[in-house]
Design goal:
Blueprint (H helix, E strand, L loop, with lengths): L2 H10 L4 H7 L1 H6 L1 H6 L9 H13 L4 H16 L6 H17 L14 E6 L6 H14 L4 E6 L6 H12 L3 E3 L6 H15 L3 E6 L7 H17 L6 E7 L4 H13 L4 E5 L9 H9 L3 E5 L7 E3 L2 H9 L7
Parallel strand pairs: 1-4, 1-5, 2-3, 2-4, 5-6, 6-7
Antiparallel strand pairs: 7-8
Helix pairs in contact: 1-14, 2-14, 5-6, 6-7, 7-14, 8-9, 10-11, 12-13
The structure holds guanosine-5'-triphosphate and magnesium ion.
């Protein structure tokens, strides 16, 4: 059985099939559908083929370094099979993408066994932090976890109320910072509240900040420090919320955020509105930071744990035909 057939078989058993397929529809049009078109002109894995493949990978926002690496590995692999068919070349391609992602194993999400687990959400303006906090709350509540929100975006007018409203809707208590006050104070209050009430998960929503504003980046470091004083090991997770539609620019944002805080994971939002699905591979290959969740819409239920096989299948659906 070929790699793509096995991928399909695994995928058909997944619960989230439909959500993945519709969320990655645009990415599939740029990637899988365009690759499929190449079968009509296929004469083997030669320079022409690799050049076209590079273009498709770049359009999917895999980034030049990762695209070159994929092409080089495919070229080497096909040297062993000089009369490779298009179908088998595609099998090798997707398998190589999986190998590249898996080369550095994803560290699991850290949960505090002796008290509340603190999760800090950071990112640039409008990336989807507050919405992601709501989505995470929805997910953890589904698993019967007691969740607390900390509205630590004291900077943007209306930001505290935005999270408080989600709190009301989802029945999650919201510890509010003071508008224009020190966001670290809200983190301290939130951690204390969570300890007192025996909460399981503390979701800290922070203000959008540009990565080139050093004052704001220092503020982020402070939030990390004060959390550690309240709860051992906190924040147990510091996740960068990245808007997938920004593509390669998101990658450079991530590099800078990683310098100011110990970035442990990424939530990739707005995947539903972009063809740039390849950014997942670029992030993993360049930053070695796991993508834990993907945002596939604006509602609390539109968050899914990232699953490599479902992702690969969703962006390449259709390539498995023609064995
Ligand atoms: N389609 C889609 N829209 C999303 C997703 N995540 C967030 N959004 C939308 O993006 C916009 C910004 O989301 P917010 O959660 O307010 O972003 P933020 O990072 O908190 O923004 P600031 O607090 O201003 O920095 C909203 O209109 C959200 O509904 C997603 O996964 N898919
Ligand atoms: Mg916000």
């Amino acid at each position: 059985m070929s790699f793509l057939s096995k991928l399909k078989e695994k995928f058909t058993k997944k619960e989230d099939k439909a959500v993945y397929l519709s969320g990655f529809q645009k990415s599939r049009q740029t990637f899988g559908d365009q690759l499929n078109q190449m079968k009509y002109t296929f004469h083997g894995v030669d320079d022409d083929f690799l050049e076209q493949l590079t273009i498709i990978l770049l359009e999917s926002d895999v980034g030049i370094e990762t695209a070159d690496e994929i092409c080089e590995r495919l070229r080497k692999k096909c040297e062993e099979y000089p009369s490779v068919t298009f179908h088998w070349a595609m099998n090798f391609l997707i398998e190589i993408m999986k190998q590249i992602y898996e080369e550095v194993p994803d560290a699991p999400i850290v949960y505090n066994e002796n008290g509340p687990t603190v999760i800090l959400l950071e990112g640039v303006n409008g990336s989807g932090k507050t919405t992601s906090a709501a989505k995470l709350a929805h997910m953890y509540k589904f698993y019967d976890k007691r969740v607390v929100f900390v509205a630590a975006d004291t900077f943007r007018a209306g930001a505290i109320e935005q999270l408080a409203k989600w709190g009301e809707r989802l029945n999650v208590p919201c510890i509010k910072g003071r508008e224009n006050g020190d966001p670290s104070a809200a983190i301290v209050d939130g951690c204390r509240f969570a300890k007192e009430k025996g909460a399981d998960i503390v979701l800290c929503d922070t203000a959008g900040r540009l990565q080139n504003k050093s004052m704001l980046m220092n503020e982020l470091s402070k939030m990390n420090r004060v959390a550690a004083k309240e709860i051992e090991g906190a924040p147990h997770n510091t996740w960068l919320v990245l808007d997938a539609t920004t593509g390669q620019n998101g990658l450079s944002q991530a590099e800078v955020f990683a310098q100011s805080t110990k970035l442990t994971g990424i939530i990739l939002t707005k995947m539903d509105g972009t063809a740039k699905g390849g950014i997942v591979l670029a992030i993993k290959n360049k930053l070695h930071v796991p993508v834990y969740f993907i945002g596939l819409g604006e509602q609390p239920q539109d968050l899914r744990p990232f699953d490599l096989d479902s992702y690969l299948y969703s962006i390449s659906e259709g390539l498995e035909y023609g064995e």
